Amino acid sequence: MDEFKRIKMSSLLILLLQFTGAAIGQRNLYLSVRVGDEANLPCNSVIHDQDECDGTSWFFTVSGSTVELVRGGQIGNHAQSDRLRLTDNCSLVVKKVTEEDVGQYNCRQYNKSNQQQGSDSLVLLSVVTMTEHQNNDEVMLLCSVTTRAGCRHKVKWLLQTRDADKDHRDIKTSASDCNASVTFPTSHYGSTQRSKLFTCEVTADAYNVQTFSFQSSDGDDQAATTTTNTSGRINNQVSVCWLYLVVALVLVALLITIVAFITWRKMKGKEARESDSVVRCDVDDGTVNYEHIRPPDEV
Hey, what's the signal peptide range on this chain (predicted)? Predict the structure, then answer.
């Protein structure tokens, strides 16, 4: 019975550690790309020993309909095929992204026997649109995110990496679901300044924070760039990993304490039973008799 309990406790510890590892390792990737730019969708579950990604397939799901984009490392024959390619690490590249590309992308791995290996690597792609509107003596910059499964993105405008309206009384900002605008007098910032100073920050979660530089509508040669808040992502990811690790260690310590307490109680009970039994030798016939001696009743 004791051995069976120890086996059950060990199994529980193993399951706990596996659950903790899975919670740390599995996470959806939210990727935002400007309309017309190139999207690089990483496959984080790639298995080893593949010949030109022959064990990799990519699926695109939108509005409940799924299309197999890549099978066994080969681009399929479909509407998007001329804009797709695979990289050496089996990532999927989508060229000249449009709003029709918004949706869920699954990277799935198969072994040589065509059996799926592990869980899918999931990428949720959204697109960012930035426009400029002039009204009399004011300019309004609008940044919006297009998604398929409801808006979870927080959008805001930055001026030189700080909130655009911070310490600027002549700048007005507003934000709603997946949209943000910034308005300022036309005389304050010319086209070149707008391209260099204003950026749109898109936050999907603690791991996915991206900024997009504004591209002026008058043909300014300032390229639209996308940067990812890597330091913030790493710091948040480390914090979450430490949180899971601490929780796991606390639970393990608690289980060990419970097991130790149960073992101690059993040992104390055994010692008490042994102390209650004494041996009396009968001198006359040489027999051995056991007598149980109980402590006198307390008054």
Answer: 1-25
- Look at residue 13 in the predicted model and tell me its pLDDT: 45
pLDDT tens-digit series, residues 107-126? 999 999 999 999 999 999 99
Can you spell out the DSSP letters for 194-260?
HHHHEEEEEEEETTEEEEEE---TT---PPP-EEE-HHHHHHHHHHHHHHHHHHHHHHHHHHHHHHH
Q: What is the pLDDT of residue 246?
A: 61
pTM of the model: 0.65
Question: Which residues of the chain have a pLDDT value below 50?
Answer: 4, 7-8, 10-26, 219-242, 278-279, 281, 293, 298-299
Helix (H) or strand (E) holding 263: helix 230-275
The CATH fold of domain 35-119: Immunoglobulin-like (2.60.40)
pLDDT at 188: 83
State how far the Cα of 39 lies from the Cα of 143, in Å rounded to an integer. 18
Q: Quick one: pLDDT at residue 79?
A: 74
Q: Which helix (H) or strand (E) holds 157?
A: strand 154-159
230: exposed, middle or buried (Cβ count in 10 Å: 0-12, 13-18, 19+): exposed
Q: What is the pLDDT of residue 14?
A: 42
Distance CA 209, CA 231 (A): 10
**∠ at Cα 11 (7, 13), nearest 5°?**
120
96 Rama sector, left if φ>0, alpha if ψ -120 to 50, beta otherwise: left
Residue 72 CB neighbour total at 10 angstroms: 14
Instruction: Write b or e for each residue in 123-140: b if 16 or more Cβ atoms lie within 10 A of its Cβ, otherwise e.
Output: bbbbbbbbebeeeeeebe
Nearest CA-CA partner of 57 in 76, 32, 83, 40? 76
Relative to beta strand 29-34, strand 39-41 is unpaired
Domain range list for the chain: 35-119
Of 72, 139, 79, 137, give the one whose Cα is nearest residue 108: 72
